[in-house]
Amino acid sequence: MSVGTHAIDIRTSPHIKGQLTTDTIMLHVVYALLPVTAFAVFVFGLSALLMILVTTGTCVLTEHVLCKLAKKQTTVRDYSAVITGLLLALCLPPAFPLWMAVVGGVVSITLGKALFGGLGMNPFNPALVGRAFLQAAFPVAITTWAPAFWPKVWSIERFTSIMLPTVSLPFMRPESVAAFIQGVSLDGLSGATPLAKMKFEHQATPLIDLFVGMTAGSAGEASAFLIILGGIYLCARKMMNWRVPVSILVTAAAVSGAFYLSDRQAYPTPMFMLFSGGLMLGAVFMASDMVGSPMSPIGIWIYGALIGAVTVLIRLKGGLPEGTMYAILLGNACTPLIDSLTQPRIFGARKKAVKP
């Protein structure tokens, strides 16, 4: 279209462009994860640090190689692979064998992301896809935990030595390589997390230990306080929909509260349910993934309620002490259906007449 001697280029809406880019949002998610990651290293030591480096490096390298094989520009600069690697490490035991961590990183990027076309097209959280694969392939290793602050809170030993399972060779028992490893300790390995103690032994863990991070469990279960701070940071910068974690946590508290009121001796308190296990990490950093969560506000509330309720039901009535991973993956799978059922009516459009 031209007016006089000047040409005007008219395009379709939207005409307003936001200042936020995918790279910027992903970088700030990394910033929000850094305190949780640093505290995990402080709590669990060198073994946790090596696992974080291995999973993150594997995810970045895998994505770069897949981009090269597909003959397209590498996408590692959007930080999505870094986030996948960090989240995968944070939902694994701190003494998890490094070779298994490599397998998990490759699966996360290949099956959880690249298979569906890359960033923005993956229906499931890639880190949880990798974690689910590892749970099925290596059930013993993924349920071998280390206590927090091994051997003592202010001891430097956990920063100068590693736990033996970390460096076990593929398909070999850790004891078979002990003679070749220097400065490795077997001390402190335990199989009891707060959720396992509550489910199988009816033994409660003090809430302050759960809130601050003084318990055994996955690397990212260390501090609910730091996870909440990371979520507040992202919400304040409008890089995360606050409705996702709020709906999950409110539903989990309500459902677990109903169980608790029905039998206070058999079921834990709602506060224990919120701060234990991977619920806080999953609600803030995994379920809030923009790709795997619904778009409409009411759809998000339904999505969060589904995840919160399923998590509690698996924990209290299922065979496993933890259910956050399965609940989020189920929520991701239901997102297209939720979106289709909660689409707002087009402005100016009339409702379809119901046929008699």
Low-confidence region ranges: 174-188
> Roughly how many Å is the radius of gyration?
22 Å
Number of individual domains: 1
- End-to-end C-alpha gap: 49 Å
The average pLDDT is: 85
Largest sheet: 2 strands, antiparallel
Query: Secondary-structure element order, as H and E?
Result: EEHHHHHHEEHHHHHHHH
Instruction: Name the strands of the widest sheet in spatial order.
Output: 1-2
Topology:
Elements: E1 2-3, E2 6-7, H1 22-44, H2 46-69, H3 80-90, H4 98-110, H5 126-137, H6 157-160, E3 162-163, E4 184-185, H7 194-201, H8 207-212, H9 224-236, H10 243-262, H11 270-275, H12 279-286, H13 297-317, H14 324-341
Parallel strand pairs: 3-4
Antiparallel strand pairs: 1-2
Helix pairs in contact: 1-2, 1-3, 1-9, 2-3, 2-4, 3-4, 3-5, 4-5, 5-14, 9-12, 10-12, 10-13, 13-14
What does this structure look like?
This protein is mainly α and 356 residues long. It has one domain. Helix content is 53%, strand content 2%. It contains 14 helices and four strands. The strands form two sheets. The protein has a two-stranded antiparallel ribbon. A hairpin with a 2-residue loop joins strand 1 (2-3) and strand 2. Helix 1 (22-44) packs antiparallel against helix 9, helix 10 (243-262) packs antiparallel against helix 12 (279-286) and helix 13 runs antiparallel to helix 14. The longest helix is centred in the N-terminal third of the chain and has 24 residues, at 46-69. The model is unreliable at 174-188 (pLDDT under 50).
Briefly, what is this?
The protein has one domain (22-341). With 356 residues, the chain is mainly alpha-helical. It has 14 helices and 4 strands.
